[in-house]
Amino acid sequence: HPSNHQLEEKSILKRAECRAKGGAPGFKVAILGAAGGIGQPLSLLMKMNPLVSVLHLYDVVNTPGVTADISHMDTGAVVKGFLGQQQLENALMGMDLIIIPAGIPRKPGMTRDDLFNINAGIVKTLCEGIAKCCPNAIVNLISNPVNSTVPIAAEVFKKAGTYDPKKLLGVTMLDVVRANTFVAEVLGVDPREVDVPVVGGHAGVTILPLLSQVKPPCSFTAEETEYLTKRIQDGGTEVVQAKAGAGSATLSMAYAAVKFADACLRGLKGDAGIVECAFVSSQVTELPFFACKARLGRAGAEEIYQLGPLNEYERVGLEKAKKELAESIQKGISFIRK
Ligand code: NAD
Ligand code: LMR
Predict the structure, then answer these.
(1) How confident is the model at residue 338 (pLDDT cuts 50, 70, 90)?
(2) How many CB atoms neighbour CB 57 within 10 A?
(3) CB of 249 sitting under 6 A from ligand 2
(4) 59 belongs to an annotated ligand binding site
(5) Could you tell me which PROSITE patterns the record lists for this protein (predicted)?
(6) According to the model, what pLDDT value does residue 4 have?
(7) Is 127 in the pocket of ligand 1 (CB under 6 A)?
(8) In this predicted structure, which of 18-27, 203-212, 254-263 has the lowest mean pLDDT?
(9) Is 94 helix (H, G, I), strand (E, B) or coil?
(10) Catalytic residue list contains 202
(11) Ligand 1 mean position, distance from CA 33 (Å)
């Protein structure tokens, strides 16, 4: 009898061949931190994505159980689990998209920056593996503090000579998801009809919703603007406090991560007009990274859009955001350079 491993290898090859022949796209996706609070529902949702043909689940704990469980779902993607640092390279080899929710989450009273000391090292190690094994993959980085972990990843890739700024994307989709939800509540409409650009970064005042650019066009009173901006900026803290020590947003984050990953895969496939906000390398401000609307295509974030006209409230917010962002970005860069 062939071993489980041989069967798995055979089925992966068979499915990839079959997809190649039919011209149907099938992307290979790895999730690093797949056994965590975000990782598990994210793995579940990616297993349901018809654009995914191979799904690699990597973590330093519990991946065999999560993988066995998810692999019984009767959807197309073939799932394979990888446990521990010695299996990182096999998890990464040949992947088109890497999603990284590895790292510790906040507890009440902590800022995202308080996670830096532990998560910076985790992101560094994972990105060294990516540079070695799949330097052309698109990277969706979720681990906090995103404002610093994205610069860390960029520095690791630069050091390895593999840095492609279009392919490194800090995931800020949860800010957009929250903004759409809270704005829809105020307007009394279905959140699916609302599109709120959120720019800047992913922590407190660096999260800058552009309420003057909401689609469909609408207007807010000064009180509504203040309420919505604060609620969107503090959305993560709202969940951290409600979970009271049991972690931060996981389910809404898995939803947001899949929404963003799916947009990246549709871009890779060649679909036109895919535009989402992400924390990327940009020349939109004087800062080297900034969350902006980006057009996603075969090469990653192929076009970064300007901020567009801001009102006075947003201009003041932008200055505050840039001040904190500059420090967080520098902290990430220094972590690798020194
Ligand atoms: P969690 O503790 O539930 O899960 C994290 C997982 O990472 C665990 O399974 C852990 O074993 C794994 N891990 C730790 N070190 C690793 C390593 N070296 N390699 C691979 N895996 C490793 O945490 P969570 O709630 O899933 O949150 C994960 C991260 O995502 C946190 O840093 C959190 O702040 C961040 N987050 C970001 C956003 C965002 O919008 N970008 C939203 C929510 C949470
Ligand atoms: C979020 O916005 O929910 C995440 O960044 C997690 C956190 O610490 O708030």
Answers:
(1) confident
(2) 30
(3) yes
(4) yes
(5) MDH (PS00068)
(6) 64
(7) no
(8) 18-27
(9) coil
(10) yes
(11) 6
